[in-house]
Amino acid sequence: MIKDPHHPNRESRTTNHDRELAGAVNAMSAGLSFMMCALAVFAPMASAIDAGEIIGKCRAAAYSAGKDSRSEVRMVTERKDGAVTEKEMTLLSIDIGDNGAQRYYIRINKPPASHGLTYMIWKNTDLEDDVWQYIPGADGAAHFPAGEERSAFEGSCLTFEDISGRGAEKDTHTLHNDEPAFWVLKSVSRDSGPVEFSYYLTWVDKSTYLPGKVEFYDKGGRMYKRTLVLEVKEIQGIPTVVAKRTQILSSGTNTLWSVSGTAYNQGLSEDIFTERSMKEPPVELGGQVY
Q1: Strand intervals (E) in the chain
Q2: How far is it, in rounded angstroms, from Cα 141 to Cα 290?
Q3: How far is C-alpha 290 from the geometric centre of its chain's CA atoms?
Q4: In angstroms, rounded to a whole number, what is the distance separating the alpha carbons of residues 82 and 78?
Protein backbone atom coordinates (compact mmCIF):
# COMPACT_ATOMS: atom_id res chain seq x y z
CA MET A 1 0.00 0.00 0.00
CA ILE A 2 1.46 3.45 -1.04
CA LYS A 3 1.23 6.16 1.59
CA ASP A 4 0.16 9.68 0.64
CA PRO A 5 2.37 12.14 2.58
CA HIS A 6 -0.32 14.81 2.41
CA HIS A 7 -3.00 12.39 3.68
CA PRO A 8 -1.39 10.09 6.27
CA ASN A 9 -4.75 8.45 7.16
CA ARG A 10 -5.60 7.46 3.58
CA GLU A 11 -3.82 4.11 3.95
CA SER A 12 -5.95 3.31 6.98
CA ARG A 13 -9.18 4.15 5.12
CA THR A 14 -8.09 2.07 2.13
CA THR A 15 -7.20 -0.83 4.38
CA ASN A 16 -10.60 -0.70 6.07
CA HIS A 17 -12.28 -0.67 2.65
CA ASP A 18 -10.21 -3.63 1.53
CA ARG A 19 -11.15 -5.49 4.67
CA GLU A 20 -14.85 -4.76 4.14
CA LEU A 21 -14.60 -5.90 0.52
CA ALA A 22 -12.73 -9.05 1.52
CA GLY A 23 -15.38 -9.77 4.14
CA ALA A 24 -18.13 -9.37 1.59
CA VAL A 25 -16.34 -11.65 -0.86
CA ASN A 26 -15.83 -14.25 1.87
CA ALA A 27 -19.50 -14.03 2.81
CA MET A 28 -20.52 -14.45 -0.83
CA SER A 29 -18.20 -17.41 -1.17
CA ALA A 30 -19.65 -19.00 1.92
CA GLY A 31 -23.17 -18.40 0.60
CA LEU A 32 -22.32 -19.92 -2.76
CA SER A 33 -20.74 -22.90 -1.04
CA PHE A 34 -23.90 -23.38 1.02
CA MET A 35 -26.08 -23.12 -2.08
CA MET A 36 -23.92 -25.65 -3.92
CA CYS A 37 -24.16 -28.03 -0.97
CA ALA A 38 -27.93 -27.55 -0.82
CA LEU A 39 -28.25 -28.25 -4.53
CA ALA A 40 -26.11 -31.34 -4.13
CA VAL A 41 -28.37 -32.58 -1.34
CA PHE A 42 -31.76 -31.71 -2.86
CA ALA A 43 -31.08 -32.46 -6.53
CA PRO A 44 -31.09 -36.22 -6.01
CA MET A 45 -34.32 -35.93 -4.03
CA ALA A 46 -36.01 -34.00 -6.83
CA SER A 47 -34.77 -36.34 -9.53
CA ALA A 48 -35.89 -39.32 -7.42
CA ILE A 49 -39.54 -38.28 -7.85
CA ASP A 50 -40.40 -40.09 -11.08
CA ALA A 51 -43.98 -39.13 -11.99
CA GLY A 52 -44.34 -42.02 -14.41
CA GLU A 53 -43.24 -44.53 -11.80
CA ILE A 54 -45.58 -43.04 -9.19
CA ILE A 55 -48.64 -43.14 -11.46
CA GLY A 56 -47.78 -46.72 -12.41
CA LYS A 57 -47.73 -47.72 -8.75
CA CYS A 58 -50.96 -45.79 -8.21
CA ARG A 59 -52.73 -47.69 -11.00
CA ALA A 60 -51.44 -50.99 -9.62
CA ALA A 61 -52.58 -50.17 -6.08
CA ALA A 62 -56.04 -49.06 -7.20
CA TYR A 63 -56.81 -51.63 -9.90
CA SER A 64 -54.38 -54.53 -9.65
CA ALA A 65 -53.64 -55.12 -5.98
CA GLY A 66 -54.02 -58.89 -6.36
CA LYS A 67 -53.77 -61.39 -9.17
CA ASP A 68 -57.57 -61.38 -9.28
CA SER A 69 -60.46 -59.95 -7.26
CA ARG A 70 -64.18 -60.16 -6.65
CA SER A 71 -66.41 -57.44 -5.18
CA GLU A 72 -70.08 -56.63 -4.73
CA VAL A 73 -70.74 -53.09 -5.90
CA ARG A 74 -73.52 -50.64 -5.07
CA MET A 75 -73.72 -47.67 -7.44
CA VAL A 76 -76.04 -44.77 -6.64
CA THR A 77 -76.39 -41.87 -9.08
CA GLU A 78 -78.19 -38.70 -8.01
CA ARG A 79 -79.11 -35.97 -10.46
CA LYS A 80 -79.57 -32.26 -9.82
CA ASP A 81 -83.37 -32.59 -9.99
CA GLY A 82 -83.28 -35.16 -7.17
CA ALA A 83 -83.80 -38.26 -9.33
CA VAL A 84 -81.89 -41.25 -7.96
CA THR A 85 -80.96 -44.53 -9.64
CA GLU A 86 -79.42 -47.41 -7.76
CA LYS A 87 -77.76 -50.53 -9.14
CA GLU A 88 -76.08 -53.50 -7.53
CA MET A 89 -73.59 -55.66 -9.39
CA THR A 90 -70.84 -58.24 -9.11
CA LEU A 91 -67.41 -57.20 -10.33
CA LEU A 92 -64.67 -59.70 -11.17
CA SER A 93 -61.19 -58.85 -12.43
CA ILE A 94 -58.04 -60.72 -13.36
CA ASP A 95 -54.52 -59.72 -14.41
CA ILE A 96 -53.29 -61.09 -17.74
CA GLY A 97 -49.51 -61.48 -17.81
CA ASP A 98 -47.20 -58.92 -16.24
CA ASN A 99 -47.59 -55.98 -18.63
CA GLY A 100 -50.67 -54.40 -17.06
CA ALA A 101 -53.34 -56.07 -19.20
CA GLN A 102 -56.52 -56.98 -17.32
CA ARG A 103 -60.03 -58.30 -17.86
CA TYR A 104 -63.21 -57.25 -16.07
CA TYR A 105 -66.59 -58.98 -15.78
CA ILE A 106 -69.54 -56.91 -14.50
CA ARG A 107 -72.96 -58.48 -14.01
CA ILE A 108 -75.86 -56.33 -12.80
CA ASN A 109 -78.07 -57.97 -10.16
CA LYS A 110 -80.52 -55.18 -9.26
CA PRO A 111 -82.87 -53.58 -10.10
CA PRO A 112 -84.90 -56.47 -11.53
CA ALA A 113 -85.30 -54.67 -14.85
CA SER A 114 -81.51 -54.77 -15.34
CA HIS A 115 -80.92 -58.23 -13.86
CA GLY A 116 -78.48 -60.23 -15.97
CA LEU A 117 -77.20 -57.27 -17.98
CA THR A 118 -73.49 -57.98 -18.30
CA TYR A 119 -70.42 -56.05 -19.40
CA MET A 120 -66.92 -57.25 -20.09
CA ILE A 121 -63.84 -55.06 -20.43
CA TRP A 122 -60.51 -56.19 -21.80
CA LYS A 123 -57.97 -53.62 -20.71
CA ASN A 124 -55.18 -53.65 -23.29
CA THR A 125 -51.76 -52.03 -23.02
CA ASP A 126 -50.92 -51.59 -26.70
CA LEU A 127 -54.40 -51.11 -28.20
CA GLU A 128 -57.71 -49.47 -27.33
CA ASP A 129 -59.65 -51.32 -24.66
CA ASP A 130 -62.36 -53.76 -25.76
CA VAL A 131 -65.86 -53.48 -24.26
CA TRP A 132 -68.76 -55.91 -24.71
CA GLN A 133 -72.38 -55.77 -23.53
CA TYR A 134 -74.75 -58.69 -23.18
CA ILE A 135 -78.49 -58.05 -22.88
CA PRO A 136 -80.42 -61.03 -21.48
CA GLY A 137 -82.22 -62.90 -24.21
CA ALA A 138 -79.90 -61.72 -26.98
CA ASP A 139 -78.15 -64.23 -29.22
CA GLY A 140 -74.74 -62.92 -28.24
CA ALA A 141 -72.74 -60.03 -26.83
CA ALA A 142 -72.34 -56.74 -28.66
CA HIS A 143 -68.82 -55.40 -29.08
CA PHE A 144 -68.61 -51.63 -28.63
CA PRO A 145 -66.76 -49.48 -31.19
CA ALA A 146 -63.20 -48.42 -30.38
CA GLY A 147 -63.02 -45.53 -27.94
CA GLU A 148 -66.27 -46.41 -26.13
CA GLU A 149 -64.32 -47.14 -22.94
CA ARG A 150 -64.65 -43.41 -22.23
CA SER A 151 -68.45 -43.42 -22.56
CA ALA A 152 -70.69 -43.32 -19.47
CA PHE A 153 -71.32 -46.56 -17.63
CA GLU A 154 -75.03 -47.20 -17.10
CA GLY A 155 -75.93 -43.52 -17.01
CA SER A 156 -73.55 -42.77 -14.15
CA CYS A 157 -70.76 -40.22 -13.81
CA LEU A 158 -68.26 -43.05 -14.33
CA THR A 159 -66.85 -44.21 -17.62
CA PHE A 160 -65.86 -47.80 -18.37
CA GLU A 161 -62.27 -46.56 -18.13
CA ASP A 162 -62.95 -45.26 -14.62
CA ILE A 163 -63.94 -48.78 -13.61
CA SER A 164 -61.01 -50.59 -15.23
CA GLY A 165 -58.41 -47.84 -14.84
CA ARG A 166 -56.73 -45.81 -17.54
CA GLY A 167 -53.45 -47.27 -18.75
CA ALA A 168 -50.54 -45.17 -17.48
CA GLU A 169 -48.79 -45.54 -20.84
CA LYS A 170 -51.58 -43.59 -22.57
CA ASP A 171 -50.47 -40.31 -20.96
CA THR A 172 -47.39 -38.30 -20.11
CA HIS A 173 -47.03 -37.56 -16.41
CA THR A 174 -45.26 -34.75 -14.54
CA LEU A 175 -45.02 -33.75 -10.89
CA HIS A 176 -47.45 -30.85 -10.44
CA ASN A 177 -47.00 -30.40 -6.69
CA ASP A 178 -45.35 -32.17 -3.78
CA GLU A 179 -47.60 -31.96 -0.72
CA PRO A 180 -46.80 -33.42 2.72
CA ALA A 181 -49.12 -36.43 2.30
CA PHE A 182 -49.68 -36.51 -1.47
CA TRP A 183 -47.87 -36.28 -4.77
CA VAL A 184 -49.99 -34.30 -7.19
CA LEU A 185 -49.40 -35.51 -10.74
CA LYS A 186 -50.48 -33.84 -13.96
CA SER A 187 -51.33 -36.20 -16.82
CA VAL A 188 -51.79 -35.28 -20.49
CA SER A 189 -52.98 -37.75 -23.13
CA ARG A 190 -50.40 -38.76 -25.73
CA ASP A 191 -53.26 -38.75 -28.25
CA SER A 192 -55.67 -35.89 -27.62
CA GLY A 193 -58.09 -37.03 -30.32
CA PRO A 194 -60.17 -39.66 -28.48
CA VAL A 195 -60.33 -37.96 -25.07
CA GLU A 196 -62.51 -35.11 -23.85
CA PHE A 197 -60.08 -33.83 -21.21
CA SER A 198 -57.13 -31.51 -21.66
CA TYR A 199 -55.39 -32.93 -18.59
CA TYR A 200 -56.17 -34.40 -15.21
CA LEU A 201 -54.60 -34.13 -11.75
CA THR A 202 -54.19 -37.10 -9.43
CA TRP A 203 -53.48 -36.83 -5.70
CA VAL A 204 -51.45 -39.96 -4.90
CA ASP A 205 -51.25 -40.95 -1.23
CA LYS A 206 -47.57 -41.29 -0.29
CA SER A 207 -48.23 -44.08 2.20
CA THR A 208 -50.48 -46.36 0.07
CA TYR A 209 -50.06 -45.08 -3.51
CA LEU A 210 -53.87 -45.01 -3.74
CA PRO A 211 -55.49 -42.00 -5.41
CA GLY A 212 -57.12 -39.64 -2.94
CA LYS A 213 -58.63 -37.31 -5.51
CA VAL A 214 -58.72 -36.94 -9.29
CA GLU A 215 -59.72 -33.77 -11.16
CA PHE A 216 -60.39 -33.57 -14.90
CA TYR A 217 -60.00 -30.32 -16.85
CA ASP A 218 -61.49 -29.49 -20.25
CA LYS A 219 -59.82 -27.84 -23.23
CA GLY A 220 -60.55 -24.44 -21.71
CA GLY A 221 -58.75 -25.30 -18.48
CA ARG A 222 -61.97 -25.61 -16.43
CA MET A 223 -62.49 -28.51 -14.06
CA TYR A 224 -65.54 -30.47 -15.17
CA LYS A 225 -65.25 -33.78 -13.28
CA ARG A 226 -63.94 -34.76 -9.88
CA THR A 227 -63.58 -38.02 -7.96
CA LEU A 228 -63.05 -38.04 -4.20
CA VAL A 229 -62.07 -41.17 -2.29
CA LEU A 230 -64.27 -41.35 0.80
CA GLU A 231 -63.09 -44.50 2.56
CA VAL A 232 -60.15 -46.90 2.45
CA LYS A 233 -60.04 -50.25 4.27
CA GLU A 234 -57.34 -52.88 4.58
CA ILE A 235 -58.52 -56.18 3.08
CA GLN A 236 -56.21 -59.21 3.22
CA GLY A 237 -53.45 -56.76 4.11
CA ILE A 238 -54.16 -54.66 0.99
CA PRO A 239 -55.32 -51.01 1.31
CA THR A 240 -58.53 -50.89 -0.74
CA VAL A 241 -60.81 -48.04 -1.81
CA VAL A 242 -64.29 -49.06 -0.65
CA ALA A 243 -66.15 -45.80 -1.29
CA LYS A 244 -65.67 -42.93 -3.71
CA ARG A 245 -67.84 -40.20 -5.19
CA THR A 246 -67.60 -38.84 -8.74
CA GLN A 247 -69.22 -35.54 -9.72
CA ILE A 248 -69.94 -33.94 -13.09
CA LEU A 249 -69.79 -30.28 -12.13
CA SER A 250 -71.69 -28.86 -15.11
CA SER A 251 -74.78 -31.06 -14.63
CA GLY A 252 -74.69 -31.38 -10.86
CA THR A 253 -74.88 -35.18 -11.14
CA ASN A 254 -72.89 -37.34 -8.73
CA THR A 255 -72.31 -41.08 -8.41
CA LEU A 256 -71.43 -42.93 -5.21
CA TRP A 257 -69.50 -46.15 -5.86
CA SER A 258 -69.17 -48.43 -2.83
CA VAL A 259 -67.88 -52.00 -2.64
CA SER A 260 -68.25 -54.81 -0.12
CA GLY A 261 -67.21 -58.42 0.20
CA THR A 262 -63.97 -57.79 -1.67
CA ALA A 263 -61.70 -60.81 -1.93
CA TYR A 264 -58.31 -61.04 -3.62
CA ASN A 265 -56.35 -63.92 -5.14
CA GLN A 266 -59.26 -66.33 -5.41
CA GLY A 267 -57.85 -68.30 -8.32
CA LEU A 268 -60.34 -67.02 -10.90
CA SER A 269 -60.09 -68.61 -14.32
CA GLU A 270 -59.50 -66.64 -17.51
CA ASP A 271 -62.39 -68.65 -18.98
CA ILE A 272 -64.80 -66.47 -17.02
CA PHE A 273 -63.85 -63.44 -19.09
CA THR A 274 -65.34 -64.65 -22.37
CA GLU A 275 -68.47 -63.92 -24.39
CA ARG A 276 -69.85 -67.34 -23.49
CA SER A 277 -69.69 -66.54 -19.78
CA MET A 278 -71.60 -63.34 -20.37
CA LYS A 279 -74.56 -65.40 -21.58
CA GLU A 280 -74.09 -68.32 -19.18
CA PRO A 281 -72.87 -66.96 -15.80
CA PRO A 282 -69.94 -68.94 -14.36
CA VAL A 283 -69.89 -70.73 -11.03
CA GLU A 284 -66.98 -69.38 -8.97
CA LEU A 285 -66.11 -69.23 -5.28
CA GLY A 286 -68.81 -71.72 -4.35
CA GLY A 287 -71.74 -69.89 -5.89
CA GLN A 288 -73.22 -68.63 -9.11
CA VAL A 289 -72.51 -65.05 -10.09
CA TYR A 290 -75.83 -63.17 -9.96
Answers
A1: 68-78, 84-96, 101-110, 118-123, 130-134, 142-143, 171-178, 182-189, 199-205, 211-217, 223-235, 238-248, 253-264, 283-284, 287-288
A2: 17
A3: 29
A4: 6
Number of other residues whose CB lies within 10 A of the CB of residue 8: 9
Distance CA 28, CA 21 (A): 10
Give the ranges where the chain is alpha helix by DSSP (H).
10-48, 51-63, 160-164, 275-279
Q: Could you give the 3-state DSSP secondary structure of residue 193? A: coil
Give the tens place of pLDDT for each residue, 54-74. Answer: 999 999 999 999 999 999 999
Classify domain 65-288 at the CATH topology level: outer membrane lipoprotein receptor (LolB), chain A (2.50.20)
Q: Can you tell me the mean pLDDT for 178-182? A: 97
What residue type is 14 in one-letter code? T
Cα–Cα distance for residue pair 117/279, rounded to 1 Å: 9
Backbone Cα Rg of the chain: 29
d(CA 50, CA 238): 23
Closest CA to 68 of 237, 270, 235: 270
Average pLDDT over residues 186-212: 93
Q: Classify burial at 176, counting beta carbons within 10 Å of its beta carbon; exposed 0-12, middle 13-18, buried 19 or more.
A: middle
> Residue 86 carries which DSSP code?
E
Query: Contact, 165 vs 59, CB < 8 A?
Result: yes
Provide, rounded to the nearest whole percent, the portion of the chain with pLDDT above 90. 67
Domain residue extents for the chain: 9-40, 65-288
**Measured in whole angstroms, how far is the alpha carbon of residue 213 from the centre of its chain?**
8
Nearest alpha carbon to residue 71 among 254, 241, 277, 275: 241
My answer on whether omega of the bond before 111 falls inside 30° of 0, hence cis, is yes
